[in-house]
């Protein structure tokens, strides 16, 4: 395909809402979706129908008296379960899809970490176990960012810590809140906002230049937020129609080029016999750069072995 003049075209919403328990992620997602639906109907852009993929044990349905939407409550949180529900919602003609929340696709029942642990238990190390899981996670990302509908995804957050080693001493430092999903997931969205416990939304990432800026604050986001973002979504030229992408094919037998140094680094953590040994290995050679997928793998391996060694220590003490 030849290069051509770039231009701003109309777009579909790709919004991530992050927050602690009680910050109002489900309600805010519904309020924003409801506002966008009203704007769509007013502009004759569609019916504004809302579909909710609920992994939060029916939390969205608590607001069924406030908003008009359809819901599917997941029993398995495999990334592919989300992919299937997104495809079903698109085929049914929904205009707005809410995935509440995609944190479970990472660390819930049948989520990516659960599947990785199951694969590791069947044999092999943590690195090779990811070979069957990473394609499923990537399929979820593709389904979210490639959807024909507007997409709002919620993510739980937790306090994030980093381990730093200097002069032979290891120190744990608090660096703020992090979304419970694979590291870097926020990069996939056009807009990312953090909700606090007063239900206020502060924008932490935006590509909506001239409409929404980093640091913008929305008290109890709903129609107020929807009006601003919808102005950006509907500005520009009509997008060029593209052929529908093929359904995600996950080949669990696919082979990956494996970095031998990194594999040795993971194996050394699996072989550690004490917390001190584990910390030395984790801070040693082979440690991947922060922000890479290898770093997420290494962090998961470290935490799993830390838990393993703590159990061993408790058994010895008993």
Can you tell me about this structure?
This protein is α/β, with parallel strands linked by helices. The protein folds into 2 domains: 14-233, Rossmann fold (3-Layer(aba) Sandwich); 260-317. Helix content is 37%, strand content 20%. The chain is built from 10 helices and 9 strands. Strands 1, 2, 3, 4, 5, 6, 7, 8 and 9 form a 9-stranded mixed sheet that branches. A hairpin with a 2-residue loop joins strand 5 and strand 6 (169-179). Helix 1 (25-42) packs across helix 7 (223-233). The model is unreliable at 250-258 (pLDDT under 50).
Task: Tell me the major beta sheet.
Answer: 9 strands, mixed
Number of strands: 9
Return the CATH topology of the largest domain.
Answer: Rossmann fold
Element-level helix/strand string: EHEEHEHHHHEEEEEHHHH
The CATH architecture assignment of the largest domain turns out to be 3-Layer(aba) Sandwich
Shape: elongated
**How many alpha or pi helices?**
10
**For the CA atoms, what is the radius of gyration?**
21 Å
**What number of domains?**
2
The overall average pLDDT, rounded, is 87
Structural class determined from secondary elements: alpha/beta
Low-confidence stretches: 250-258
CATH C-level of the largest domain: Alpha Beta
Percent of residues in helices comes to: 25-40%
Terminal-residue CA separation: 68 Å
Proportion of beta-strand residues: 15-25%
